[in-house]
Amino acid sequence: MRTFINESAENYLETILILSRQLPVVRAVDIANKLGFKKSSVSVAMKNLREKEEITVTDAGFIYLTDSGRKIAEMIYERHQLLTIWLTKLGVPEEIAVEDACKIEHIISEESFAALKKHAEK
Questions:
Q1: Which of 36, 43, 87, 92 has the fewest Cβ atoms within 10 angstroms?
Q2: 10 Å Cβ neighbour count for 38?
Q3: How confident is the model at residue 6 (pLDDT cuts 50, 70, 90)?
Q4: Under a CB-based contact definition with an 8 Å cutoff, are residues 64 and 71 in contact?
Q5: CA dihedral in degrees (64, 42, 38, 4; nearest 10)?
Q6: Has residue 73 got a pLDDT over 80?
C-alpha cells in the first residue's frame, strides 16, 4: 500500500519531473504555464509540497524534487506512460488515451498496475 498523497499533488510532482527533464531549472511560473493554472494557485500547492517535504525551493525560486517527491513523480509518470500506450494499442484515440491515463494513474492499485505492466512486457 502506497502512502496517500492527493491527485493534485501527484499531478504537480509529475509535472515538476517532466519539466526538470526539459528545462535547466523549474520555477512556479513554468508549472503554471504547463498546467494552465494561475501562478498563485501553483504557489499554494508548492507551499503544501514543501511542507510535506516532497520538494525544495531555493531562494531564487528554483523547485527541486526531494527523494520521496521524485519517487512519487516517477511512479505516476510510469503509470501515465504505460496506460497511455496500452489504451492507444487497444484502439483508443491518443488524445482520449492521454486524458484517461491521467485519471486512471491516480486510482489504480499497485497490484493492478503491476499486473498490467507484467502483461504489457510479454
A1: 36
A2: 10
A3: confident
A4: no
A5: 120
A6: yes
Q: Give the chain's domains with CATH numbers.
A: 7-71 (1.10.10.10), 75-121 (1.10.60.10)
Do 82 and 117 meet the contact criterion of CB atoms below 8 Å apart?
Answer: yes
SS (H, E, C) the chain: CCCCCCHHHHHHHHHHHHHHHHCCCCCHHHHHHHHCCCHHHHHHHHHHHHHCCCEEECCCCCEEECHHHHHHHHHHHHHHHHHHHHHHHCCCCHHHHHHHHHHHHHHCCHHHHHHHHHHHHC
Residue with cell 527541486: 64
Query: Averaged over 59-76, what is the pLDDT?
Result: 96
- Whole-number Å distance between alpha carbons of 91 and 107: 22
- pLDDT value for 1: 38
Give the length of the chain.
Answer: 122
